[in-house]
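Please describe our next protein:
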Amino acid sequence: MAEKELAGLPGAYNGKPVVHQANLFAGWQSEIFADPLILLMDFKTRTLQELRHRRTTLSSRHALVGFDGFVDTIVTPVAMRAGQGENFIPINTITEFGQRILEAAGKSTNIEFYPRMDKLGGNGPIMANALLAQGTTLTYIGALGYPVIHPVFADMAERATAISLCDPAATTAAEFTDGKLMLGMMRSLDEITPAKIDEVLTSDGYRRTLEAADLIALVNWTMIPNMTAVFTDLVQRVLPQVPVKPGRIFFFDLADPQKHSDSDLVYALETISKFEQFGQVTLGLNLKEAQQVFAVLGFRTETETESGLRAMAAKIRERLDLTTVVVHPRESAACANRTDTFWIPGPYVAKPLITTGAGDHFNAGFSAGQLMGLSPEACLGLGACTSGHYVRTGVSPSLADLETFLANWK
């Protein structure tokens, strides 16, 4: 497909096979699509075709990601032990785990966590690692270890420009068949402030780092106490001095804001909307986050169906006046931009190898798609495949891996 054809893709189809056949036909008639067979392709084939056409552009794009950093210990809770090592019956569900805790009320109990692995963690490092695997050049600013970078981040630091502000936080991630519990110790993240960023980078260095970026991903608002202050500092002081770069993307991930008050969340969302004056803002939300944001913005509950997810993304986007809002449950994904809504089913797997970091991999895939100029539908497809590959293998996929995944996705 030619550049002209791909430029027309975002507005020409949106994953609605019946409702928007007219858009597709109009695109074909106006020669947006040289090949009318694209009308008959499913979204996986369209995504694969776009990726193959645009994949070489990603290496010329630069991402800036920040500001958290965790050392994650992935564990399996033990229900009954029969011997040493892995000779035990696990606690399979959060419900079962919760019942064990409730039964200890007024008494006490001991629950063993069997360690599976230590790995780099935090929304930022996991997203950055996934972007690096796909070929993006990258700068990371965050809690990677101070004054020496922690060993779990060593590989990422070799492949990216890594700037550490403080020591990482720590998470024990207990994984179940119906979700995961993230138990965090995060006091070191208190050090992430506008003043600390200026101290480490200098004001000029901060501006130059932002100026070089095509994608600026600011993630984990929930766990960084001063993140709203960082946002405000960027909007009021720093970004007005940074030249506007055509097509620059700002990506935000709140990271489960349940522990924050409604007023704090609304203020953060209003601050995020102010980044639109400096570029194109994407807000990425998993289902729980989307439902909380939806509620604090005054909307009534939507269903978890395709139509409900489309509506949720569209209403949040319109209320906040953002370029794009993404909602990604485990089984599907939807997004809304200024012209339409989009939805795809996901490559769901009942027994994943790992789930911690799945959402961050989705965010990386979606953002990589945006950096390559893919259609919204293809960005959703790339996000779903990046996450799908990761939860099956525990490995962040390359673009070649994603092509293979798409080609084999049944």
